[in-house]
Design a protein that fits this description.
Elements: H1 4-20, H2 26-32, H3 39-51, E1 55-56, E2 65-66, H4 68-77, H5 86-96, H6 103-118, E3 121-128, E4 133-140, E5 145-152, E6 156-163, H7 170-184, H8 209-224, E7 228-233, H9 247-258, H10 260-268, E8 277-281, E9 291-301, E10 304-313, H11 318-337
Antiparallel strand pairs: 1-2, 3-7, 3-10, 4-5, 5-6, 8-9, 9-10
Helix pairs in contact: 1-3, 2-3, 5-6, 6-11
């Protein structure tokens, strides 16, 4: 548990590092937010935060820079702040509220706007979930694993592998398959994107709730992985950030964003709830190494799920990004409500 003073100092280091991309000194912190504290007291607090893993001192005589742990604390403590200027707000509205020829045109405008205002790479993932499920089959592979096969009106999804216990016999397999078919057959895929596990629907013979949870996770994951359309804009923005002055880092970043399958996975692994905002920081949180990913879930139409967001360095202006995504999400809600 951090004291109020430690929180203020940590936030000051993160804000200063986001703004200038250079280590933040005790004198800067004193000047900007803790004028009633001595430099010695602030240095002691900085040392304590460093020992706790929140800060890094690149050189003995340098100030501190935040670690990924510090950025995670920072975004968890953020309260909403509309930091958009009137000009930025007008720019967003003029681009998105004009008449559009198609949904694809809207999506292209969204990626352009997000990229231009945030100066990061923007991504929009559209997933058409209008398909109806016609059957679910469970196949025992006799090696401690089960294959989940989902049959829809237009395709067969059969990439879902689930570990099963030795006690899961053929009868239990058939019972589980029948139970899942009662739940899902005849429904649109979109109906279980925000699915809550129906433990109350299981009867006494189904004791393995954890297995059913795994199966439903597979249903959602494999369905989302098909029929996705990924639009990316502003890859060149990475050159504006000092972390990517190194050619190897640029090549690695461009390779990551160049894989649309990977971007689809990163930008939809967020719980699936409309209006849900997710911030992933670094590889420990399933973002590409050295990157942060901020996403917001939106409904782009009937049975069309969407995720909009940005990918960029961990030293990201999260306040600005969140304000942009909030504004655009509200516009999309209004647009969809009028159709």
């Amino acid at each position: 548990m951090l004291s109020l003073r430690k929180k203020k100092i940590l936030s000051a280091v993160v804000d200063g590092y986001i703004e200038k991309a250079s280590p933040v000194s005790s004198k800067e912190i004193q000047k900007n937010c803790l004028q009633d504290c001595s430099s010695a007291t602030i240095r002691n607090e900085l040392s304590a935060l460093e020992s706790m893993g929140y800060l890094i001192q690149p050189h003995v005589s340098a100030g501190r820079i935040p670690s990924e742990k510090a950025f995670r604390f920072y975004v968890n403590e953020l309260t909403y702040e509309n930091c958009l200027t009137d000009e930025e707000t007008s720019f967003i509205e003029n681009k998105l509220l004009r008449k559009h020829d198609s949904l694809d045109d809207v999506i292209q405008q969204i990626t352009d706007v997000v990229s231009q205002i945030t100066n990061y790479t923007s991504v929009v993932v559209k997933a058409d979930m209008a398909d109806k499920i016609t059957a679910i089959k469970l196949l025992d592979l006799s090696n401690g694993q089960m294959l989940v096969v989902i049959v829809t009106e237009t395709r067969v999804l059969k990439d879902g592998m689930v570990d099963i216990s030795d006690e899961f016999d053929e009868l239990m397999l058939l019972q589980a398959q029948a139970w899942l078919n009662r739940l899902f057959v005849g429904k649109h895929i979109s109906q279980f994107l925000n699915f809550t596990y129906p433990y109350t629907l299981t009867n006494d013979q189904f004791k393995l709730n954890s297995l059913f949870k795994k199966i439903i996770d597979v249903l959602r994951k494999q369905s989302l992985a098909n029929g996705m359309d990924v639009t990316i804009c502003g890859e060149h923005n990475i050159f504006q950030h000092s972390e990517y002055s190194d050619v190897a880092n640029v090549q690695k970043f461009l390779s990551e964003v160049g894989s649309k399958d990977k971007m689809a996975q990163v930008f939809t692994d967020d719980g699936g709830q409309d209006g849900f905002v997710t911030i992933k920081i670094g590889s420990s949180e399933n973002a590409p190494e050295g990157c942060s990913v901020v996403t917001s879930r939106v409904a782009l139409g009937a049975n069309i799920a969407g995720s909009i967001g940005v990918i960029g360095p961990v030293r990201m202006n999260y306040k600005k990004v969140l304000a942009v995504l909030d504004k655009i999400s509200n516009i999309i809600i209004d647009m969809m409500g009028k159709e």
